[in-house]
């Protein structure tokens, strides 16, 4: 991202608002922070944003209701929900409102940055693919990863991936059977921590994908060249 992404933060906790505004600014975002849904709707009528971070528990219109309104009026605006409740029901409700991601308080500010960058990457306009047909899905070892939904399933059952794991698997799958350099993965997946962080995420992915992570069959290391995903099948959209 050459220009700074402008993030709208909506949270009635002034201390947290100030913390998020300061931390996001330190990580190269522009930030506008407001205390409630009414302020958010007012400012959105005059200003465009690249993403919104919404607290769920707010007086008046809560985060769920605000997310529904934003999704109805601005269908392409990426939304990240924040909540103090750590229940599956709240997470599902948040996603059903149209939120792109969900983070439970307390959270590490670095994780918020990582998740924001991931949803911004997914929301970015896609390049012209006419010259190279990218995979729609890859299949290996009972797994199927759908690149159009960023969804991993094993024998039809969803497999949970973190935002960083999803971004990494997407990039490797998009380049199936071709090596991906660590530095390219850092840039494409917006992984904080550099190449060492990529190695850590690969290790975590292997624990979920490989029968024996010490001897990977699918997510392999190419010494001096990076990593490569070797699926058994690559699916393309019908032309």
The largest sheet, given as strand count, sense and whether it forms a barrel, is:
5 strands, parallel
Counting helices, strands and paired strands, the structural category is alpha/beta
Supply the number of helical segments: 8
**Helix content percent band:** 25-40%
Strand sequence of the main sheet, in spatial order?
2-1-3-4-5
CATH architecture of the largest domain: 3-Layer(aba) Sandwich
- The CATH topology of the largest domain comes to Rossmann fold
**What percentage of amino acids are in beta strands?**
15-25%
Describe this structure in words.
With 239 residues, the chain is an alpha/beta fold. The chain has two domains: 118 residues, Response regulator (Rossmann fold), CATH 3.40.50.2300; 99 residues, Arc Repressor Mutant, subunit A. Helix content is 38%, strand content 21%. The protein is built from eight helices and twelve strands. The strands form three sheets. Strands 2-1-3-4-5 form a five-stranded parallel sheet, sandwiched between helices. Strands 9-8-7-6-12 form a five-stranded antiparallel sheet, covered by helices on one side. Helix 1 links the parallel strand 1 and strand 2. Helix 6 crosses helix 8. The radius of gyration is 19 Å and the shape is elongated. The two termini are 31 Å apart. The relative contact order is 0.10. The model has no long low-confidence stretch (mean pLDDT 84).
């Amino acid at each position: 991202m050459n220009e700074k992404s402008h993030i709208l933060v909506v949270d009635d906790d002034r201390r947290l608002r100030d913390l998020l505004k300061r931390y996001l600014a330190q990580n190269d975002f522009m930030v506008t922070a407001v205390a409630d849904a009414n302020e958010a709707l007012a400012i959105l009528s005059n200003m465009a944003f690249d993403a919104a971070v919404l607290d769920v528990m707010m007086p008046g219109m809560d985060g769920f209701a605000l997310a529904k309104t934003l999704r109805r009026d601005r269908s392409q605006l990426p939304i990240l929900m924040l909540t103090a409740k750590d229940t599956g029901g709240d997470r599902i409700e948040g996603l059903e409102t149209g939120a792109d991601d969900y983070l439970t308080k307390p959270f590490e500010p670095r994780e918020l940055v990582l998740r924001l960058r991931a949803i911004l990457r997914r929301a970015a306009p896609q390049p012209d693919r006419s010259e190279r047909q990218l995979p729609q899905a890859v299949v290996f070892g009972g797994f199927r990863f759908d690149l159009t939904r960023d969804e991993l399933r094993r024998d039809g059952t969803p497999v949970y991936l973190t935002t960083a794991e999803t971004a990494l698997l997407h990039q490797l799958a998009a380049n199936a059977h071709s090596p991906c350099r660590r530095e390219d993965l850092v840039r494409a997946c917006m992984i904080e921590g550099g190449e060492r962080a990529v190695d850590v995420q690969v290790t975590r992915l292997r624990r979920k994908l490989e029968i024996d992570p010490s001897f990977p069959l699918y997510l392999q290391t190419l010494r001096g060249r990076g990593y490569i995903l070797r699926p058994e099948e690559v699916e393309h959209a019908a032309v």
